[in-house]
Amino acid sequence: MGLMTPRGLKVRLELPWAFGLLARLWIKNAKTDAFRVLKTCEAIEEAPEVLALVAGFVVVVWGEQLPVWTIPLALVLGRVAGILLTQLGFIVVVRSTGLLFLAHIFSYVCGYGVLFVAEVPIVVYFRSWVGAMWWVAGLILSEIVAFFVEHPFVSWHNRVIGQPFTSSEINFFIAYRLHAQRLGISQDLDVSDAEVEDGAWRSCLLDYATKYPKAVLRFPSGRGVLDALTPPILEEQADALFKRCMSGLGGRENPPPR
């Protein structure tokens, strides 16, 4: 089924697996709930783009003597370096540099075009419209290069592990390990049958659905998520939670037939 982060990043993991891991953290420390870990996942996902922007602005602001084509070069190299940091798990090593902190802030404001509107005038100020054109070209080129850099990792995971993990799934695992390391609990990514059967993952999912119903409805099947909670939740409780989710979005209140 998969799940979605609060900002809509799709993580293609079965709910018992994903929330089985999240439940370990939540049981250890109630403040480390699913929302917090999924926001960390979003920050890690944005880290390559943040690193690209940092590299690009370094060239724009302090590289006046450099050729203008070094602007897209810096953007591309920064993006590639960020992808390698996350895909190879080295982001855990550089967490103290402040990259994740910047990426966490970035994850709240990206996606609306606000940053792009702010970036272009800054580049124009330091490097004129010519520099701004190279900047835009660099952003486009970095997206294309990122696709070709990430694809071999997906193929490798599919061949070796049997799962075509994308960056979203890898970053979810990294987010879990970062919080597990902080809390001093197991960083093992396997969820045992006992963990699935004891229902802790359902309780963690229910906590997330209760606190952030709109985020849960971002899942591929919002109603399916609530169905996954039964048992042990009574059908009436699931229906009530579904109505709360829908009313929060201004949608219809009657749940669809089972």
Structure write-up:
The protein has 258 residues and is mainly alpha-helical. It has a domain at 38-168. It contains 11 helices and 2 strands, in the order E-E-H-H-H-H-H-H-H-H-H-H-H. It has helices at 15-28, 34-62, 70-87, 99-109, 114-160, 167-183, 193-197, 200-211, 213-216, 222-228, 235-248; strands at residues 3-4, 10-11. The chain has a two-stranded antiparallel sheet. A hairpin with a 5-residue loop joins strand 1 (3-4) and strand 2 (10-11). The longest helix has 47 residues, at 114-160. The chain is elongated, with a radius of gyration of 21 Å. The model is unreliable at 251-258 (pLDDT under 50).
Could you name the key traits of this structure?
two-stranded antiparallel ribbon; mainly alpha; 258 residues
Strand content: under 5%
Total DSSP E strands? 2
Individual helix count: 11
Distance between the termini: 17 Å
Radius of gyration, CA atoms, in whole angstroms: 21 Å
Going across the biggest sheet, name each strand in turn.
1-2
Mean pLDDT, nearest integer? Answer: 84
Task: Outline the biggest β-sheet.
Answer: 2 strands, antiparallel
N-to-C SSE series?
EEHHHHHHHHHHH
**Class from helix and strand fractions:** mainly alpha
| Gross morphology | elongated
